[in-house]
Amino acid sequence: MSDKKNEGVVRSYSGYVKVSEKMKTGMLTVRGDFKSSKFKTSFTKVVGTKLPKDRKLILAKNNVAWMSPDELLILCDYADVSSLSQNLQTELKDQHHMLVNVSDARALFEISGSGSREVIAKLAPVNIATLEIGEIRRTRFSQIAAAFWLTSATSVSVICFSSVADYMFNLLKTSSMPNSKVGDF
Amino acid sequence: MSKRLAEGGLFIDRNKPIKFEFNGKKLSGFEGDTLASALLSNDQVLVGRSFKYHRPRGIVASGSEEPNALINLGDKEKFEPNQRATTTELFDGLKAASQNHWPSLNFDIGVVNNYLARFLPAGFYYKMFIHPRPFWKYIYEPFIRQSAGLGRAPSQKDHSQYEHFYAFYDLVIVGGGISGLNAALTAAESGLKILIIEQTPEWGGRCLVDFSTIGDETSAEYVSRLVSELKKFQNVTMRSRMMGAGVYDHGYILGYERLNDHLAEEDGPRHRLWRIRAKQIITATGSIERPISFPSNDIPGIMLASAVRDYAVNFGVATGNKIAVYTNNDDAYRTAITLNEVGVEVPIIVDARGSGGGALAERAKALGIRVENGKAISKVFGKKRVEAISICEHKDSGKGNEKIACDCIAMSGGWSPVVHLYSHCGGKLKWDEKMVLFKPDSSAKPTSHDGLPFVTAVGSANGFLLIQEVLKDAREGCLEVVEASGGKVKKESFKLNEQEYENSLEAIWIAPQDADIKKRSKIWLDFQNDVKINDVELAAREGFESVEHTKRYTTLGMATDQGKLSNINGLAILSSSLGKEIPKVGTTTFRPPYTPISLGSIGGSARDDLFQPVRKTPMHDWHENNGAYMEPVGQWRRPFCYPQAEETYAKAVEREINQTRSSLGILDASTLGKLLVTGPDAGKFLDMLYTNMMSTLKIGRCRYGLMCSENGFLIDDGVVARIDDQTWLCHTTTGGADSIHAHMEEWLQTEWWDWKVYVTNVTEQYAQIGVVGPNARKLLEKIGGVDVSREALGFMEWKDGNLGKYDARIFRISFSGELSYEIAVPAKQGLAFWGELIEAGKEFQVMPYGTEALHVMRAEKGFIMIGDETDGTVIPQDLNLDWAISKKKVDYLGKRAQERSFMVNPSRWKLVGLETLDGSVLPDGAYAIADGVNPNGQKTTQGRITSSYFSPTLRRGIAMGLVMNGPDRSGEIIEFPKIDGTVIRAKITSPVFYDPDGEKQNV
Amino acid sequence: MLVFKCPYCGIEADETELSPGGEAHLKRFGPGSSDEELEGYLFNRENPKGVHFERWRHVYGCGKWFHAARCTSTLEVFGTYSAQTFEPPKEIIDIIKSKRPGWKWRNLS
């Protein structure tokens, strides 16, 4: 079935929210000293955005997510990772840093529908009601590590390791089965 | 008989009849009935048999405290044992069966125990089944197993869905009676996020049954007004059919929501376990009525007075034609008055108190009901049903002086606040001498992360039993809590309305007061587990002073109801037997859950595919589609071998090895850990982590390395590749990827935090494929691209480049002893690359091989495997790996520990190869015996097998093992006894069985 | 089921998002140390009923190790702090002093 909407989608499921796994997303791990103004300048010069504040995610052409006090994740087009990485490498060459292409090591899911937050609340020990758009939360989804962020009031993006993409898809699918709506959001 | 009244019943809809089955008998009830009320409406009073003596048991209560009415519910995949009829809502087609009897409920062989009761006192099992010792295994245990447990275990898989839900609230209120509702309403205006839960389907608790009016409203109007006012608040969530199961540290509370149990057809998840964090918790859990301890108080038809009232008011059911009331407090008079109003005869109210009751007693008398003060029930006539009672003076030994006909007794021994949730997390109780009950000690509430109280009991759960006091406490108790959780509400003081005068309760622990031993041995405390007054007295005489010990010795309170009815009465008997005051004896520990919750809800969605995460490599589906037999390796699934047609696994492994050694094999090695380590101090860091030197490794080269714990023991091994000036790529074992990554982070963050090193786990970024065998190079050359010749890529070297259209990093390393390349490509190219290797390898009859072939080939080469040759007690020196331990380094993790006397003891067991004399395969883990015996009288041992395989290459069994002074004993023959008593003799050899000079891998 | 605030990312982390790491502020003894020092480093641990200092890792989160001061008996948390330190910060010691007068832990009091 050729559905334009499903382009770039590995698989999807429609329960009381829609769950879909994206085909390919570029992901670049950046580690360095975020307090260093030299680092900040270099980063902004190449990536085009400032460094995100703690726990924040900058939604731009390239999304930049704060992963830890010395780690960022840049989400971009799959094809752009190596050039982005090379440009950053050149710019950061005298600074202690690390750049790693992790595009193939991660899976990205999108959840949409008014119950999106509720579906996450079945899996992660996180107070989602207080989570704002533009905030990323690293946590566990049932038994695996994951990170997620709200892209709107009714849509959520989730990333996890690619080896457990099947498990994650089944988790999200089971949690969004029709007739399992909680109604707490 | 018990029957449906002509009218009445708040909860039932008489226009909606419902059909159900009990023990195969077709019965009918109404929508809104519980199974218990429906059974009673059909005169089914006898519903089960007790655990020990198989005595007939009838419904006692109307709620979750019910000890007797436990039934097998449903059938096939919906079968569930030990369900309480009193909390089971009736639905069309419900099938229930009684438990713990054979052949039938009415005629039960096990009742013979009843006649042996004199010989089955408390602790009988402990005393009886200890001698003679051999009897335990063949006679006692099978017998006990046969008779243990009430319900049957389900025989089929449960197909229902379950789920968890994480929720966060400022305030959680447990209990939807008038205390809970008033507390919620008081708090609602603060804007706090509030959840109020009620275990039954109905809001209002006892209020509807106990009071006709509250203020100017009927109680029904009052409750529905509270509910509708609460529903207006956006910040208040109300959930019925949801029980507060347990309260835990730091405001964690479990809510057990039953979504489907009341429906004939399931719709969505059956149960949902709410895993809630609350800043504050209010327990408005009410209280439970206590039975009275009088002779033969376990006969069906003897019920709690409040339950008799509930069945009449809520379900329009009369639990008898003539119902005698027996009480030590005023509340039971409400039952008598209610029964009188609905037209059921109350032949007598037996009040144990010499002074009698207050205003309610006057009302009862005015209705013409006979009231006898200072009296006791001395005897109950009837076996499976109450037929009559005789009464006597309470302050007497129990010589009955009047027989009164009745078929039901409504008893009330006072009330016990439900303090379970308050107590789960450390809340202390105090004994109220006047009210005769344990209640929460407001100065010793459970405390949270900030050291401040987080659980508050209100209303009757807090020891207030009169309605005006309950309402006042619900409001005022709530105010403090609202403030503690950061909210503000107006502090209106609560005006107490006048209420009827109630005379105080008088503690009656045995009735009649001077009952002799014969009578006391017929007074039941725990109806389900058959614990009587004389059992507790016996325990006290035998020295069980602690209430916790007495509980376990007598099984008092250990039944499925966890002593909800029996605990206080039992405790009082124990304290009087010990001559101590009740608060000195104390209560047993209240543990979650409040009532049993389903195992399904605890598991949530973690079943079938979701039971555990299964990690899959990019080639996983190919393996499965090509017949691989998969084995778990940590959370990964890896092909063990790829059997063809009718081939056995052993034959498949043999074929894979032979083809790899003679031509070409490929292996999915993607699960190997890959940790990228970079920074100016990365070399220094790796020198500390590995036993050998990594800082001197040249760019483009690989080195095998060992990692030890600070305790000196070998924890991981693998090949390290130097990528650039500041970057190393460390391969770990499959199981080590996450743990070694964590190990590195731990040392970097907590010990050497000033070192400039970053680590990233890149395991899943790559698909890694071993291309192995004499034709390995030819295959890569056929695909074309980067030069992999002997000159361009030597042994233990790596390089980046293209192979065909793939972005490859090629390591020339070998774990099999053959010419071998490990090739990493980005994971998303993995499957296609694998496919290309298979396709291009056809001319070499390429053979995908699994983990077992990998294991055998490495063992043939004498390579160790973490987890086989190591078990957490093995140091590298034990494995003759001294060559991989740097002598030059001042320090590395584990170096100091390896200098300990025990580690340098020359008689440590060391690695050797073992060849069986008869060519057979030694059992893995077998021990080599030596002369003599150890201090335990067991044979002395001198070694053990760590790896053992049939080698297709050598056509014989080969093994590796750790043997005392092994390497010095080459050629010696040692003996390995097998479980079957035979002995295998094996010769000590070098562990390298195949190509000891490494000619094959160096081509 | 404890909750600790991770001092690195500021998340109030559920116990199921953390992994425990035993006693805090151990001093490493390597080559050249005596048998007693090594024994103490590897094996001897405090086991207090009351104030304790522990290591935790925000493993399902930012991945950072941190220290926590808490009461093993009431589970009260006095504070969490950086793992890159040799001893608890003064603010936390002050809180403990005020809440648990007379407390002792190793050489701290």
For CATH, the homologous superfamily of the largest domain in chain B is named as: FAD/NAD(P)-binding domain
Structural class of chain A: alpha+beta
Nearest-angstrom radius of gyration of chain A? 17 Å
Give the integer mean of the pLDDT values of chain A.
94
What is the number of E strands of chain A?
11
Q: Which descriptor suits the 3D outline of chain B?
A: elongated
Share of helix of chain B, binned = 10-25%
Mean pLDDT of chain B: 94
What radius of gyration of chain B results from the CA coordinates? Answer: 38 Å
Instruction: State the largest interface.
Output: A-B, 44 and 43 residues
CATH homologous superfamily annotation of the largest domain in chain A: Probable tRNA modification gtpase trme, domain 1
- What fraction of the residues of chain B are assigned to beta strands by DSSP? 25-35%
* CATH class annotation of the largest domain in chain B: Alpha Beta
As an assembly, this protein is heterotrimer
How are the strands of the largest sheet of chain A arranged?
Answer: 1-2-8-11-10-9
Number of strands of chain B: 51
Secondary-structure element order of chain A, N to C: EEEHEEEHEEHEEEH
Textual characterization of the structure:
The complex is a heterotrimer of chains A (185), B (1003) and C (109). Chain A has helices at residues 37-47, 81-91, 116-121, 165-175; strands at residues 9-14, 18-22, 26-31, 57-58, 63-68, 71-76, 98-101, 106-112, 136-141, 144-152, 155-161. With 185 residues, chain A is α+β, with helices and mostly antiparallel strands. Chain A folds into 2 domains: 7-23 and 106-175, Probable tRNA modification gtpase trme, domain 1 (Gyrase A, domain 2); 26-104, Alpha-Beta Plaits (2-Layer Sandwich), CATH 3.30.70. Chain A has a 6-stranded antiparallel beta sheet with strand order 1-2-8-11-10-9. In chain A, helix 1 (37-47) packs antiparallel against helix 2. The model of chain A has no long low-confidence stretch (mean pLDDT 94). Chain B has 25 helices and 51 strands. In chain B, the strands form 14 sheets. In chain B, strands 9, 10, 13, 14, 15, 16 and 30 form a 7-stranded mixed beta sheet that branches. Chain B has a 6-stranded mixed beta sheet with strand order 42-43-44-41-35-45. Chain B has 6 domains: 3-114, Ubiquitin-like (UB roll), CATH 3.10.20.440; 163-287 and 417-484, FAD/NAD(P)-binding domain, CATH 3.50.50.60; 292-413, FAD/NAD(P)-binding domain; 620-669 and 767-857, Gyrase A, domain 2 (2-Layer Sandwich), CATH 3.30.1360.120; 673-764, Alpha-Beta Plaits; 895-989, Aminomethyltransferase beta-barrel domains (Elongation Factor Tu (Ef-tu), domain 3), CATH 2.40.30.110. Chain C has one domain (3-99): Folate-binding superfamily (Folate-binding fold), CATH 3.30.2270.10. Helix content of chain C is 17%, strand content 28%. Chain C contains 2 helices and 6 strands. Chain C has helices spanning 35-42, 90-99, and strands spanning 3-5, 12-14, 19-23, 51-57, 65-71, 77-82. In chain C, the strands form 2 sheets. A 4-stranded antiparallel beta sheet of chain C has the order 3-4-5-6, with helices on one face. In chain C, a hairpin with a 6-residue loop joins strand 1 (3-5) and strand 2 (12-14). The longest helix of chain C has 10 residues, at 90-99. Chain C is globular and about 40 Å long. Chain C starts with a strand and ends in a 10-residue tail after the last helix. In chain C, 35% of the residues are buried.
